[in-house]
Design a protein that fits this description.
6-stranded mixed β-sheet, 5-stranded mixed β-sheet, 15 strands, about 35% helix
């Protein structure tokens, strides 16, 4: 049976929302019943995952993944732009259905299901003000003049999170709302380093180089597994299973790798599937 998929036009950017509506109907025979209903999916501004194009539309890995999930499942998924802090607050309170590229933790798993779809890791981007002799987290921390910025509510991996906790106790950590804010802090000299996912800085390699930032891989052993996050309070178990099965199919048939390659290149796409 062939399916006709129609997408609604995005609302104006000032509303901070983007709607993806999928109306699945049969071209021949009776209209097929949708296997699930309507869900609100919060996303956030973060480099190759989601970014605003010059024409006012959002694009990125996460928006492509959600579009493909909706197309395959027949679910109606509404993408809404939110801050990462508000996303986790709403999920915990049972006021949001789903979000994208989230990292699991014991606390988060108490109120949400996680369906993994890519692996990534963080890097440290050093400003030119940092002594070139600094070659590790401990050496950076040893100089009390240096400060670092990280995105609030993010998990950065075991190594970086432990290091940030020590730096935070010394009052040397700035919390930023997103990657754009991170870049602003290091460019104006408020901080001397930022911690960023490769999905954030790789698309901006020319910009980071022009800003004199050095990319340091100081926790190569850490691996972060990001996934679709579904509220245990609001998303039915059958729908969770449907999305999980669909995500596995998207990985097996090469769809995920094509989406990653579209935004980050073939080499990085392959690495993102190693989970």
């Amino acid at each position: 049976m062939r399916r006709l998929v129609a997408f609604s036009e995005p609302t104006p950017v000032k509303t901070r929302t983007l709607i993806i509506s999928l109306l699945v109907c049969a071209l021949h025979g009776p209209v097929a019943a949708a296997p699930c209903g309507s869900y609100k999916v919060a996303f956030y501004d973060h480099g190759a995952l989601n970014s605003l194009r010059a024409d006012g539309r959002w694009q990125g890995i996460d928006t492509d993944v959600i579009e493909e999930l909706a197309r395959r499942t027949g679910c109606r998924l509404t993408l809404v732009l939110e801050s990462r802090v508000r996303i986790w607050t709403m999920l915990k309170a049972g006021r949001l259905d789903m979000t994208v590229s989230g990292l699991a933790s014991p606390e988060r798993e108490s109120y949400a299901h996680f369906i993994p779809y890519f692996a990534s890791r963080n890097y440290v981007l050093l400003s030119s003000a940092v002594d070139p002799q600094v070659q590790s987290l401990d050496e950076f921390a040893a100089d009390g003049r240096y400060k670092v910025a990280a995105i609030k509510s993010f998990q950065h991996g075991q190594t970086y999170d432990a290091w940030l906790a020590r730096m935070r106790a010394q009052g040397r950590v700035y919390d930023a709302v997103d990657f754009t804010a991170l870049m602003r802090l290091v460019k104006i000299g408020r901080v001397h380093a930022i911690i960023a996912l490769e999905t954030s800085w790789r698309p901006l390699r020319a910009e980071t180089s022009a800003a004199g930032l050095r990319v340091m891989d100081w926790a190569p052993q850490d691996r972060l597994i990001a996934g679709l996050v579904l509220s245990k309070q609001r998303v039915a178990p059958a729908t969770v299973a449907l999305f999980a099965e669909t995500m596995v199919a998207m990985r097996q048939d090469g769809t995920l790798e094509k989406i990653f390659a579209r935004h980050l290149g073939a080499e990085q796409a392959s690495a993102m599937l190693r989970f």
